[in-house]
Amino acid sequence: MTDEHATDATWVPGSCRLPTAERPVRVAEFDSFFAEAVRWFDRPSAGHLRLHLTGTEAVERAARDLSARESACCSFFTFQITRDGPDAVTMEVRVPAAHVGILDALTERVRPRNASAPAQDGSWLRSGRLAAEAGVNPQTLRYYERRGLLSAPRRSPGGHRLYPVESVTRLRIIKTAQRLGFTLDEVADLLSARHRRGGLPERATAKLAEVERRLVDLTAVRDTLRAAVAAGCDDLVACAGNSCCPLPFPHA
């Protein structure tokens, strides 16, 4: 990874095998990737940069492709791509001590587009960042606050709404529970019961019974529709007067 604005020849590592003419193109690829894919980043150590990416398959493919090509020309880089869930991918970049300056330059290319996370004091997220991390709309945060699913945020000195980083996990729990068929009222009850023994098993068992009842009803609907198609039903008025029609018309 090189910087097209660099003029000091010692800045470019001797191990880089990418032709000089191709370096601006590679830089542009990384810039585009950073702008489109990076939600936020952190720097656990001088030789370690962690990029938190959006979780689409296209972003993951781009991350793997770029890291593979960059490793081929600059072998001092070590990339690790990890899918953290349906909505998040992490790209970790490591370099040895001798190349920390290269990682500094790469970090600076990310910084103008993405503020260092989690937030200014390291433990709070602004509403836009939280929404992006959890894969929800910013308006959803206030709706969840009104429903009691999310605690009211604190305010920064500049008036920004700040949420604890743990809110990301809470929002992902809410989304997962909704996908399992729980209503928001039921989700609130689940969250309030998480410290009580038996809370989740009881509610999961009840939800399972409800889903099984719905499956019975849906299976009956499916079978009736199949019978109607097989019988050649093509007119509801005509079918209503035919006692042999498989559609469930009430008959006197």
Can you describe this structure?
The chain has a four-stranded antiparallel sheet with strand order 1-2-4-3, sandwiched between helices. Strands 5-7-6 form a three-stranded antiparallel sheet. Helix 1 packs antiparallel against helix 2 and helix 4 packs across helix 6. With about 250 residues, it is an alpha+beta fold. Strand 1 and strand 2 form a beta hairpin. It has nine helices and seven strands, in the order αββαββαβααββαααα. The protein folds into three domains: about 100 residues, 2-Layer Sandwich (Alpha-Beta Plaits), CATH 3.30.70; about 70 residues, Multidrug-efflux Transporter Regulator, Chain: A, Domain 2; about 40 residues.
Task: Record keyword descriptors for this entry.
252 residues, four-stranded antiparallel beta sheet, three-stranded antiparallel beta sheet, Alpha-Beta Plaits, disordered N terminus, 7 strands, elongated, Multidrug-efflux Transporter Regulator, Chain: A, Domain 2, alpha+beta
How many helix segments? 9
Shape: elongated
- What count of structural domains? 3
Distance between the termini: 81 Å
Which CATH first-tier class of the largest domain would you pick? Alpha Beta
Structural class, judged by helices and strands? alpha+beta
Placed side by side, the strands forming the largest sheet appear as 1-2-4-3
Q: What integer value in Å does the Rg equal? A: 27 Å
> Secondary-structure element sequence?
HEEHEEHEHHEEHHHH
Beta-strand content bin: 15-25%
CATH architecture of the largest domain: 2-Layer Sandwich
Largest sheet: 4 strands, antiparallel
